[in-house]
From TrEMBL:
Pfam families registered for this protein in UniProt: ABC_tran
SMART domains: AAA (SM00382)
Source species, domain of life: Bacteria
Residue span(s) of domain ABC transporter: 2-235
Primary site of residence: membrane
Higher taxonomy: Bacteria, Bacillati, Bacillota, Bacilli, Bacillales
Keywords of this entry: ATP-binding, Cell membrane, Membrane, Nucleotide-binding, Translocase, Transport
GO MF annotation, one: cobalt ion transmembrane transporter activity
Protein name (record): Cobalt transporter ATP-binding subunit
Protein family membership: Belongs to the ABC transporter superfamily.
Membrane topology, from the record: Peripheral membrane protein
GO cellular component, one term: ATP-binding cassette (ABC) transporter complex
Amino acid sequence: MIKVSNLSFSYKKGGHRVLSGINIEFDQRSTAIIGQNGAGKTTFVKLLKGLLKPDEGEILVHHFDAKLKTAAEMARTIGLVFQNPNDQIFKRTVLEEVMFGPLNIKMGKYTAEKQAIKALKMVELDDKLEMNPHDLSLSEKKLLCIASVVAMDTDIIIFDEPTIAQDHQGKEKIREIINELKNNNKLILTIIHDMDFVAENFERTIVFNEGKVLLDGDTRFVFSQKAILSQAKVEPPGITQLAERLGMKNTILTVDEYIRVSGTM
């Protein structure tokens, strides 16, 4: 769905390269992009979304060159849920907030409202249609922003730190939403520091370090590469580390898996 070739970018002409020589192909697998702050993850996503233009290289989305598209045009294909919901919310009611995106990509008012209510039902905020978004809790605001993007029905949805400010119940809700979107054939990407959530929910993981791709593969394989993860200053999930300390040979990704495997030992 996305092919990135020889991508390089710097914020100042002739300045330090934030990204250098990136080559990645995204298919239908849900994918987490991890790495320390400053590794280039957010810049990479902004390039995919059309908010920035590369210095060198090419980004093909559905075979068209993203460099030749405006950010508004890219919004029809790629949706981005911001890390901080307060950066995304500006309308007077919950329903208006979720309708804004669909209307902005020229969806008819009737269809936009239908899509908005459907998305709000997904995130369980359809009982707050006339509420002021700023009166929602931080967790609810995050869900509102997810609904705003889902309502646009883009093929690709990017989550920026989806689990920040979420308690266990909030994380479970976001997990359900991601699974439903995957079942609807959406490509789900995330930038995230929550390794436990990555291990439980994403099929593929890409490790960025100093503007380059250090590791890319099946999530279980990636979390088995201790030396490379250490180089990127990334720690495997807590349950993965515990299982290793207890002598389990296979890379364990979830608590349920740990219980199942330990019960057969």
